[in-house]
């Protein structure tokens, strides 16, 4: 996910994981802006797909104020299992001697 946070300094932004969500918060106290005062605050909560590895999530912030958060997919566990082949003795075949006895 990417988010425009150019109105915030890096120290005014937090990115954290809560359960299976990424929570991004930005807040700066009231400050003068031209002839008025302004304060900003936002919270964004993004649900992650089940196949994301939330423990390996990373965030980057570009010089122009774009915050990007990425969570790689979980490693796919191989569900392959080798099944042993059990060989069964071949059925007894009748020999020429067996045929003669009958």
TrEMBL record:
CDD domains attached here? metazoan_ACD
What biological process terms from GO does the record include?
protein refolding; response to heat
Q: Is Transferase a UniProt keyword of this protein?
A: no
**Database matches in Pfam families:** HSP20
Naturally occurring in which organism (per UniProt)? Lutzomyia longipalpis
**Cross-referenced Gene3D superfamilies, in alphabetical order?**
2.60.40.790
Q: What is this protein called?
A: SHSP domain-containing protein
Q: Which UniProt keywords apply?
A: Stress response
Q: Which InterPro entries match?
A: A-crystallin/Hsp20_dom, Alpha-crystallin/sHSP_animal, HSP20-like_chaperone
Task: Tell me its family.
Answer: Belongs to the small heat shock protein (HSP20) family.
Question: What domain of life does the UniProt record list for this protein's source?
Answer: Eukaryota
Looking at the record, the residues that make up the SHSP domain are: 1-88
GO terms under cellular component: cytoplasm; nucleus
Molecular-function GO term, any one? unfolded protein binding
């Amino acid at each position: 996910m990417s988010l425009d946070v150019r109105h915030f300094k890096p120290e005014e932004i937090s990115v954290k994981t809560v359960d299976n969500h990424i929570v991004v918060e930005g807040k700066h106290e009231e400050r003068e802006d031209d002839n008025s005062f302004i304060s900003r605050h936002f919270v964004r909560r993004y649900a992650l797909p089940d196949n994301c590895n939330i423990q390996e999530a990373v965030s980057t912030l570009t010089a122009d104020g774009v915050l990007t958060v990425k969570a790689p997919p979980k490693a796919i566990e191989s569900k392959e299992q080798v099944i042993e082949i059990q060989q069964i003795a071949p059925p007894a075949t009748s020999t020429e001697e067996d045929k003669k006895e009958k």
